[in-house]
Specification:
Strand content: 5-15%
Largest sheet: 4 strands, parallel
Number of helices: 8
Shape: globular
Number of strands: 6
Strand order of the largest sheet: 4-3-5-6
CATH architecture of the largest domain: 3-Layer(aba) Sandwich
Radius of gyration: 21 Å
Structural class: alpha/beta
Number of domains: 2
CATH topology of the largest domain: Dna Topoisomerase Vi A Subunit, Chain: A, domain 2
Order of helices and strands: HHHEEHEHEHEHEH
């Protein structure tokens, strides 16, 4: 029979990036924490699971009909950044460099896996661009086969609109080394070079 501690460790290992050692450390942290802290954690998890839903406009996570970004009238509604997941949206927000609005696809096209435009939020994106005064659509999708297929589909679908479709640049990260960069990253870095 499996012990409660082993069950807890096994449950914690289901979190992304959490292996045996980290799960064990988390389990012992929980064991040694104040009961009030554990009760608050459990309540918070229950509230998040019960109250969070998708924004009716951009499909980010929210506890209201519209998320904080969509409700903010100081955001540039004419610039729309397309991301795959809410985590990607948070990463762009942390950069502090984008003051427009977002559209979260919740996936990428993958014909081999049977994922087309209908399985993700692509049709809603196309409708938004056509109905709202969107001047620029910035594609912030991962440089994978699925990301490229999705970007090409979006570009083709928006050709008949007035919106400019752009793509975030990819290249060598700050502090990175050329010798450790893969050929695709180097190729994109050279292709999207800028004048200084």
């Amino acid at each position: 029979m499996i012990s409660p501690l082993d069950k807890l460790i096994k449950s914690l290992k289901k979190f992304p990036g959490v292996g045996e050692k980290t799960a064990t450390r988390y389990a012992f942290f929980i064991l040694n924490a104040n009961q009030s802290d554990i009760d608050e954690l459990v309540r918070t998890i229950e509230i998040v699971k019960r109250n969070l839903r998708l924004c009716s406009r951009c499909f980010h996570l929210t506890d209201d009909d519209l998320c904080n970004v969509c409700r903010n009238d100081r955001r540039e509604g004419s610039r729309l950044c397309v991301v795959e997941t809410p985590l990607d949206l948070l990463a762009v927000e942390k950069s502090g460099q984008f003051n427009g609005v977002y559209h979260v696809l919740h996936g990428l096209m993958s014909p081999l896996d049977g994922i087309g435009a209908e399985e993700i939020r692509l049709n809603e994106l196309i409708d938004r661009v056509r109905k709202e005064n969107v001047q620029e659509v910035i594609l912030a999708l991962n440089p994978t086969v699925e990301g490229e297929a999705t970007a090409s589909f979006i570009r083709d679908q928006l050709k008949q609109t007035k919106a400019i479709v752009s793509r975030i640049a990819y290249g060598i990260p700050v502090g990175g080394s050329l010798e450790f960069s893969d050929p695709l990253t180097l190729s994109r870095a050279l292709e999207h070079r800028t004048k200084i």
